[in-house]
Known about the structure:
Layout: E1 2-7, E2 21-24, H1 25-29, H2 33-44, E3 52-57, H3 63-76, E4 81-89, H4 92-101, E5 107-110, E6 122-128, H5 137-147, E7 152-157, E8 167-171, E9 174-179, H6 183-192, H7 195-203, E10 208-211, H8 217-228, E11 236-237, H9 258-265, E12 272-276, E13 283-287, E14 290-292, H10 294-304, E15 317-321, H11 327-335, E16 338-342, H12 350-354, E17 360-363, E18 367-370, H13 378-392, H14 396-407, E19 409-420, H15 422-435, E20 443-444, E21 447-454, E22 457-458, E23 465-466, E24 471-475, E25 480-485, E26 493-503, H16 513-528, H17 530-534, E27 541-542
Parallel strand pairs: 3-4, 3-5, 4-9, 10-11, 10-12, 15-16, 15-17
Antiparallel strand pairs: 1-7, 2-6, 5-6, 8-9, 12-13, 13-14, 17-18, 19-26, 19-27, 20-21, 21-24, 22-23, 24-25, 25-26
Helix pairs in contact: 2-3, 2-5, 7-13, 10-11
This protein binds 1,6-di-O-phosphono-alpha-D-glucopyranose (G16).
Enzyme class: isomerase
Protein name: phosphoglucomutase (alpha-D-glucose-1,6-bisphosphate-dependent)
Pfam family, one: PGM1_C_vert_fung
Amino acid sequence: MQKRTIQTRPIEGQKPGTSGLRKKTRTFMAPHYLENFVQAIWNAIGGVQGKTLVLGGDGRYFNDRAAQVILRMAAASGAAKVIVGQGALLSTPAASNLIRQRRTDGGIILSASHNPGGLGEDFGVKFNCANGGPAPEDLTARIFDETQRLQCYDILEAQDVDLSRLGAARLGGMVVEIVDPVADYASLMARLFDFEAIRALIASGFTIRFDAMHAVTGPYAVAILQDMLGAPEGSVVNAVPSPDFGGGHPDPNPIWAKDLVDLVMGPDAPDFAAASDGDGDRNMILGRGIVVTPSDSLAVLAANAHLAPGYARGLAGVARSMPTSRAVDRVAAARGLALYETPTGWKFFGNLLDAGRVTLCGEESAGTGSDHVREKDGLWAVLLWLNILAATRLSVADTLRGHWQEFGRNHYARHDYEALDAGLAGAMLDDLRARLPDLPGQVVTGRRIAMADEFSYADPVDGSRSERQGLRIGFEDGARIVCRLSGTGTEGATLRVYLEDFTDDPARLELPVGAALAGVIAAADEIIGLRARTGRTAPDVVT
Ligand code: G16
């Protein structure tokens, strides 16, 4: 086996976004593209000589090939060991857990999350640090810097490692340890939750349906929900990961998991249903006759987490990304918990979790998690819900109703406008940014604007600043509009408009979201001028 140093040139556009580098699969497969980015990671972290890394991905098209390239590059650069999930599979939270449990120096996760997979679809690579969390902004900036001056990369000339067999293999001087992707994660879950109580709930006839969306969570959900907790076979559907996610879009929301929504709204609804995304870090929670919004889910979990053994001591604090609804703020205020508001991106929760300032965090984009790992965690959220329901023996719908009665309700929706011309979308936001100072005091569709600004964040732990994290407009009556461009898309620009209104009027608590938000939606239209500027009359996705 020989180490080779390959001459290359910087490749444009290798700037990590909200969560690592996401591009079309064909882009990643182009000569030197993956290799350049991986070498840039090595350079930015001070090399991998003598280090131990974790490697795995969500099984999408090119996952297996990319894993072999990364192994050969790690070996060529002197890594001591790489711990790989069998078949190069690891869910994102399981990878985060392995990085932490095995006290490694970090890891590489191959995933484009909820984006579709396949030769014509999306691929992604991200680096997670020794704390198990996504690289913070200063490190992603250094990685980008390296991509812009890279002249060569090192790779071993070698045969593929057989990743289908558990155990140790060697690649040059490096050990490749192939592990069961599920085992360590499943035992972590068994430590956090009252499996006895959940098992008893299921044994009492409580029915569940988990849609793994042909993605990586399938094997985890089968092992935990069916094998360990006794849910009947068939409770987990679409459980075998496939390179193109069965031709679907592994995004657990009412659009892409419509079958599940139809099921819970129909006569054969299970008591509890859930779905997760491509790499297993997102979740959607449903119950008979109800879909729980991610923001409400975070608030319910914050209010009830103490019912699970892992959180029985209470929470240190909670955090949400800025565009996430402020439902959890009401729980924090009522329970005297510290509350943090961060920019979009799980990486921003890392310092707060490491410093012990928060125990639970979550985002409107279907992500919730805790200090058990440093990623959001889809199956964890499902198990915490089940643990809570096992303790209260309430239905999902009654849990929500009770929550709204106690804390009030933040009606909430996100409208996405996809594949916009990037220049046009940027200009539209620039224009709105310029108008922000004039907005307070104006009355739009009968509501008076109280504040308008651009969100920036100063990390309370290390003082680092992140500017330009979303435009927000708040109304005197408590309603809010937030606009920002997505940092995870791979085609043109995606504009996200987040809409929120609050009520504690008992007569309005159960109003459907569309009706409750009609006024805020009209105000957003008028303020942003989206119709006029883009010709779009409706969002592509409403979540
Ligand atoms: C990633 C990030 C999340 C973020 C989401 C959407 O999730 O980890 O923090 O909320 O993207 O980001 P954006 O609005 O910029 O598209 P995932 O599940 O895609 O890794």
